[in-house]
Amino acid sequence: VIAGAAALAAFLLLAAAYATRRAGSPPTALLAHPAVATRFFSFDLVREYPHDPDAFTQGLLYAENDTLFESTGLYHRSSVRKVDLQTGKVLVNHQMDGQMFGEGLTLLGDRLFQVTWLKNEGFIYDQHNFSKRTSFTHKMRDGWGLATDGKVLFGSDGTSMLYKLDPKSLEVMKVVTVKYHGNEVPYLNELEYIDGEVWANVWQTDCIARVSPEDGLVVGWIFLHELRRQLWNSGNTNIDVLNGIAWDERNHRLFVTGKLWPKLYQIKLRAVD
Ligand code: DDQ
Ligand code: CA
After folding, report:
1. Digit-coded pLDDT (tens) for 100-142
2. Which residue has its alpha carbon closest to ligand 1 atom 5?
3. Which terminus of the chain is more solvent-facing, meaning fewer CB atoms within 10 Å of its CB: N or C?
4. 58 CA to middle of ligand 1, Å?
């Protein structure tokens, strides 16, 4: 995972250097170009909360009144749950079929949409009663992340493609390729729609890409390696990657966590460019 972060950092530098050389101009000129005016963000920690260290977080969203919805993965351990933010306690739990590997989750209206790994089957749950459930199939290559702007669904499948899906038919309405300075950004994972952008965890990188859903351009990078490093350094050597972004739109609170992380963090972005 550390190698992954280093690889991404190296990739970012190389991509910038390559683009600069090709353009025959200094980096300032490159960054001044509106099409590549990518911003870079670090963060300030606002608060930390307990998070179930057995939750292999694959989908995360803020519900209301200090609760979250979360989808977890791994065979025989996958679940959909409603979680209390303050205590991390699981308030409602739905255990999935053992052959299912839970992935992205989002709430549109009263219904939770969930996709699964390596199957093109997804589920729709009544947010008030997880046993009221229907299933659907989708045409993404795989099921990784889900988010919504309140009208359509956004989906990721582990490639650099970002899908717009019709929530009624689950048909693909539009696909954009996510690119940073002309380079495809693969492994798009957990998603969140925030203020007109789709934010995507990039699997194995400690980074979140802020993507313009209209054209797929990366408009910002958020670097969160310090969170995983701090957990690791305090003895949590069992943790997996950063994954899980939730946005409390009303109170403008941003939450992040990771797979098997014992903590969930409220953070505030700080521009470093
Ligand atoms: N994904 O979240 C990146 C989409 C999938 C992660 C899969 C992690 C593998 C866990 C071990 C699977 C056992 C067959
Ligand atoms: Ca999310």
Report:
1. 999 999 999 999 999 999 999 999 999 999 999 999 999 999 9
2. 117
3. C
4. 10
